[in-house]
Specification:
Family: Belongs to the MurB family.
Bound molecules: flavin-adenine dinucleotide
Number of helices: 9
Protein name: UDP-N-acetylenolpyruvoylglucosamine reductase
Organism: Massilia varians
Shape: globular
Structural class: alpha+beta
Cofactor: FAD
Strand order of the largest sheet: 6-7-12-10-11
Pfam family, one: MurB_C
Distance between the termini: 25 Å
Radius of gyration: 21 Å
């Protein structure tokens, strides 16, 4: 095995996933650029191993030890590249902490990322599931990214179209993109900023705070306050944020459900489909605040599953399955997990 790579064996991942699930990696390597990835690819033994690219571990559920090499993206660095077509281009390395990066842009007086404040994880992972919150998605502020292709060894630049962003989805979650490791991401922030208050709860909070001419930093602070109120801090209670995606159903299916459940929370989509609120469905099935063993449903937000202490991956999976079965039986809707199961 390659002697000049600082690979650690039988490495604990418990503190590297926000669910705080105990799991171990057969090999572990910190990666701060393409050079280490190239070395792994070229080494016959390392190159043949199963690979797991790890950022902040905030969208992962370990159900077993990882019998391969974990590539932990730790590269740091961020810079303002300049203005182009009325947008300010800002680039950050994959291992940068997402929230610290957002806060840094806001401190420079650059708006655009404020609705995505306080999301855990790294910059490199933001495009993977097209991270979104409070009416903004990564694709709205995305310019391009650089990725290392573990299959060919090429460093590629991908624009938004190439990344094929969709709701909690992108190229990188599909077979054609699985060999790509994101090295850095460039965002295009508006030179002439206007607040995005499309999300009703955020608009209400801004109004209640008396912010008649809010700055990007005001919006960022408001988003942070809402999130702190609603979501568990992974530093205190293990979780991976929303455990299920909001299901999208046809207009006809939604109409049938509304006839039976007039309170159903639904949002019309541009393509005519309807997005349902997974948290509402779970809550209505009586799961909010309940537990199965050491895995529970967060009492303030039914969409978040939590580690009540000492949970293993299978405890969380058992709870998730029970919830999926109940929601399917009552509403005929299949809930799809958001975190990546390992
Ligand atoms: C409390 C809490 C709140 C959350 N709120 C939100 C929210 O509002 N909106 C939202 O969208 N998500 C949310 N999440 C989920 C999570 O924060 C995001 O998905 C985040 O982008 C994951 O980043 P990460 O670095 O932790 O990725 P990880 O969990 O380490 O990895 C996630 C996936 O991305 C891949 N990956 C990571 N880095 C790279 C890279 N550099 N190149 C290629 N692949 C990579 C991994 O292999 C894995 O498949 C929340 C999570 C928590 C715990």
């Amino acid at each position: 095995m390659q002697a000049d790579l600082p690979i650690l064996d039988d490495y604990s991942l418990a503190s590297l996933n926000t669910f705080r699930i105990p799991a171990r990696a057969r090999h572990y390597l910190r990666v701060d650029g393409a050079a280490q990835l190239e070395a792994v690819r070229r080494d016959p033994a390392l190159g043949a191993l199963p690979r797991l690219v790890l950022g902040g571990g905030s969208n992962m559920l370990f159900t077993r030890d990882f019998d391969g090499i974990v590539l932990h993206m730790t590269g740091q660095g961020r810079e303002v590249l300049g203005e182009q077509d009325g947008r300010i281009l800002v680039r950050a390395q994959a291992g940068e902490n997402w929230h610290a990066f957002v806060a840094w842009t806001l401190a420079q007086g650059l708006g655009g990322l404020e609705n995505l404040s306080l999301i855990p994880g790294t910059v490199g992972a933001a495009p993977i599931q097209n991270v979104g919150a409070y009416g903004t998605e990564t694709r709205d502020v995305f310019h391009c990214l650089t990725a290392y292709d573990m299959a060919s060894g090429d460093v590629r630049t991908l624009d938004a179209a190439a990344c094929r962003f969709a709701y909690r989805d992108s190229l990188f979650k599909h077979p054609e993109g699985r060999e790509l490791v994101v090295l850095d991401v460039t965002f295009a922030l508006p030179a002439a900023w206007v607040p995005n208050l499309r999300y009703a709860e955020l608009a209400r909070a801004v109004e209640e705070a008396g912010l008649t001419a809010p700055t990007p930093q005001d919006i960022g602070r408001t988003v942070e306050a809402i999130r702190r109120r609603k979501l568990p801090d992974p530093g205190e209670i293990g979780n991976a944020g929303s455990f299920f995606k909001n299901p999208v159903v046809s207009r006809e299916h939604c109409a049938r459900l509304l006839a039976e459940f007039p309170q159903l929370v639904h949002h019309a989509q541009a393509d005519g489909s309807e997005k349902l609120a997974a948290g509402w469905l779970i809550d209505q099935c009586g799961w909010k605040g309940r537990a199965l063993g050491a895995a529970g449903v967060y009492p303030k937000q039914a969409l978040v599953l939590v580690n009540l202490g000492g949970a293993r991956g299978e405890d969380v999976v058992r709870l998730a399955r029970a919830i999926q079965e109940d929601v399917k039986a009552r509403y005929g809707v299949a809930l799809e997990p958001e975190p990546v199961f390992i």
